[in-house]
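Most newcomers find our protein records easier to grasp once they have seen one. Sequence and backbone structure share a record, each on its own labelled line. To make this concrete, we reproduce a full record directly below:
***
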Amino acid sequence: MIFAAAMLVALVADALIGWPDALFRRIGHPVTWIGAQIGALDRGLNRDGDPDARRRAAGVLTVLIVTAAAALPALALQAALPGGWAQALLVGLLAWPLVAARSLHEHVAEVARPLAAGDLAGARRAVSMIVGRDPETLDAPAVARAGLESLAENASDGIVAPVFWGLLLGLPGIAAYKAINTMDSMIGHRTPRHEAFGWAAARLDDAVNILPARLTGLLFAAVSGRFGGAWRAMLRDAPRHRSPNAGWPEAAMAAGLGVRLSGPRVYGDRVAEEPWLNAGAPDPDGAAMWAGLDMYLKAMGLMAAALLGLALV
């Protein structure tokens, strides 16, 4: 299982190094390169005066162009590499920037640190960097919920899903996934501008995350020490979540920590009446955020162990 070894290399490299700021300032990051292409296509093809059918067709074309632009060079590069363990090492190093385990931990820890110290203003500033809610509407429990929900959802989107597709298809698989996920984050919104144009990106992102989201929930349940409760919470609560995928890791984390997540939240001038995950449990606090980060590290360690096992088969 060469690709299992490659994904393990990518995961370890990211955990140890991340993506250094000096490197980002010099060359950017593959996701920013993909984002620049998506932005150019959005500006060029998504015209405000066009009917929805034409904008939807333009969105489909955008998905095809961006996915192919990521996957085809990766496929050609992978085909040119030597075989065996050399291929595993090189594919892993090329895939390294497409895994975001270290940065996710750092961003959520930036919320947990001031929240645990009683600095609500600092926690609000930090959480505003990772969620789209108005931070001024968030009390301390809402900040903790937002941070933990972001941790759970992005563990799936940012680590488990790219590793999953890299395990199946190698470098083109992980590159195509990151292109799809970046499109969803940029244009897959139900706004007047992107409702039609981003339809294909949002639906495709939902499809490629079906299995990774459930695997992420399973990883959280497995390391929580409350496997049965977390498993039952996933089965009960995830289908009620607004997202077909995000509810699985979020519900598992909520039950694994013994707290409630989701619930009503404010976006701009709109209140979204979301159902609770693990309803009846207490709200999380700063200590629960640190416990969630510990659960996240254990889950990623379990995934790394599984990759090692596959690589040695």
In short: The mean pLDDT is 95. Residues 2-312 form one domain. The first strand starts at residue 261 and ends at 262. The first helix runs from residue 2 to 17.
